[in-house]
Design goal:
By secondary structure, the protein is mostly beta strands. The protein is built from 1 helix and 8 strands; from the N terminus they run αββββββββ.
């Protein structure tokens, strides 16, 4: 009986201590930034009714949040656009590289009805491994095309907001 009571006390103490051990939580960070970039479009087909193009985009991020997340990161995007019946849609992938060389690859899609592009990270390196999150972005300025169709070249600046979560 004496031993049983001691074991119960020891188990109660252990359970009490375990309750105070901090549980590893993911680290969530807000994204508030803008990037400016140049897109070069290559037309598969372009007519008044239908336009199918791929594009390559390159640019740089500037954070507008106090945490400076994405500040001075570079980006490269490969995407495809479709224009039919006066509406456009687009999708693709973006590789965004930090100044230290680590990077995140995002998958995105959007359409001209909302004008918003939604992106989710699908791969990361270093501290960005297994990153989760979501980002929404929308162009706030577009310059006059630098080169005409069929290899349309356009410069834009885009505002982005969202969050990412790093596993602990």
């Amino acid at each position: 009986m004496f031993y049983r009571r001691n074991w119960i006390a020891v188990i109660a103490v252990i359970l009490g201590l375990v309750m105070f051990i901090p549980v590893a939580q993911a680290q969530r960070q807000e994204i508030e930034a803008r990037y400016c970039s140049v897109q070069v479009y290559n037309s598969l087909h372009y007519s008044p009714e239908v336009g199918i193009t791929s594009y390559d985009q390159k640019g740089i991020w500037q954070s507008t949040h106090e945490n400076k997340l994405l500040d001075n990161w570079t980006l490269q995007v490969v995407g495809v656009t479709k224009r039919m019946h006066g509406k456009m849609s687009w999708n693709g992938f973006s590789k965004e590289v930090a100044p230290d060389g680590e990077f995140i690859i995002w998958e995105f899609s959007g359409n001209s009805e909302s004008g918003i592009t939604t992106a989710k990270p699908i791969y990361g390196t270093g501290k960005w491994k297994d990153v989760k999150g979501e980002r929404k972005s929308q162009a706030f300025t577009t310059a006059k095309p630098i080169a005409p169709i069929p290899n349309l070249t356009v410069a834009t600046c885009t505002k982005a907001t969202g969050w990412i979560e790093l596993p602990k």
